[in-house]
Amino acid sequence: MVTLSWKHHTLIQALISRGPLKEKEFHSIFTGVTGRNPGTVKKIFDKYLLEINKELSYVHFELKVCRDQYDGQVCYGVVNNVSDDQSKLGTKYSVPQIAFFKGIIEAIAQDEAAQGCISGFDALNIRLENQISSEASSSQQQVPPAFRNFSMSQKEKTLDELVRDKWLCRTREGNIGLGIRSLLDLRSWLRNNDVPSCEVCNEAGVKADLCPTDGCNVRIHKYCLKKLLSQRDDKRCSGCGKPWPLSKITKSEAVDEAMNEEESETQAAAPKSKRKRQLRSHGDSTENGSSQASLASTSGANARRVTRSGHSR
Ligand SMILES: [Zn+2]
Ligand SMILES: [Zn+2]
């Protein structure tokens, strides 16, 4: 058994008390704690995460990585693997508030256009009555008064709280989308609710581009498509074999994007003296590629494990 150092504890504490963190923030905390830049010492960084996860697993928590589907940024967070709503949402939310939240994520997940959001108006009009569990409704149980009396202003207040806690987010257009905490924590739920996966990364395609062919359900995240196009010129849909519509993304845009991402990763909290060595290692594209792949495969493995344990219950 590994004994965690104060450094491990500081990283866990930061993720728990400040909620899921963007990669940049988490990396700079890592640098502050260890004096190392995770961009250059990927192996050490991964070892920390592995050691932390070993210990967290005893209490059914897990440090997870995923992408914010709305801006494509990588995020880290500690999630509770015991999947009942009360323990996930803590004691903070009441039963009708949780029902309201579930109604919203269901509406977002069911969106066939994969916009990943619903309007604020639609959110406020979610009916809590629909959230009474199937066993209860089959036994003709009455709608609990707490559900019936849940007012519009209570809904508005709950929306604000859920956004603040990163269970939901407000998109640039002012709509309501899934927060990063939901994206980290509800992976197996999204799978079990038949949200089609992105064909590139295999994560649920909540906010994604759709194949335009009628009857073809293939989805790809915009950031996954950009990454793909930075490596090759075209993309055929694996579902229907037709060329994927690229009108919105040009090849040069995709390459620019990929390079910007690498650059910002490289420069994150790097002391000047180390810059040269770093650039060299980043110039080696295979190394960079494999570290990306290992990150992706880690999160993929997590997701699969979660799904399996979800089924076995
Ligand atoms: Zn994807
Ligand atoms: Zn297709």
The rounded distance between the terminal residues' Cα atoms is: 28 Å
Helical residues, percent: 40-55%
List segments where confidence is low: pLDDT < 50 over at least 5 consecutive residues: 263-313
Just give the CATH class of the largest domain.
Alpha Beta
CATH architecture of the largest domain: Alpha-Beta Complex
CATH overall fold name of the largest domain: Aspartate Aminotransferase, domain 1
Topology record:
Layout: H1 6-18, E1 21-22, H2 23-34, H3 42-56, E2 61-67, E3 74-80, H4 85-89, H5 95-109, E4 117-118, H6 120-124, H7 134-138, H8 145-148, H9 152-164, E5 168-170, E6 176-178, H10 180-185, H11 187-192, E7 209-210, E8 219-220, H12 222-231, H13 251-267, H14 275-283, H15 285-312
Antiparallel strand pairs: 1-3, 2-3, 4-6, 5-6, 7-8
Helix pairs in contact: 1-2, 12-13
The chain binds zinc ion (2 copies).
Can you offer a commentary on this structure?
The strands form three sheets. The chain has a three-stranded antiparallel sheet. Helix content is about 50%, strand content about 10%. Helix 1 (about 5-20) packs antiparallel against helix 2 (about 25-35) and helix 12 packs across helix 13 (about 250-265). A hairpin with a 6-residue loop joins strand 2 (about 60-65) and strand 3 (about 75-80). The protein folds into three domains: about 5-80 and about 270-310, Aspartate Aminotransferase, domain 1, CATH 3.90.1150; about 85-190, Arc Repressor Mutant, subunit A; about 210-270, Herpes Virus-1 (2-Layer Sandwich), CATH 3.30.40. The chain is built from 15 helices and eight strands. The chain has helices spanning about 5-20, 25-35, 40-55, 85-90, 95-110, 120-125, 135-140, 145-150, 150-165, 180-185, 185-190, 220-230, 250-265, 275-285, 285-310; strands spanning about 20, 60-65, 75-80, 115-120, 170, 175-180, 210, 220. With about 325 residues, the chain is mainly α. The chain starts with 5 loop residues before the first helix and ends with a helix. One zinc ion binds near residues 200, 201, 203, 221 and 224. One zinc ion binds next to loops.
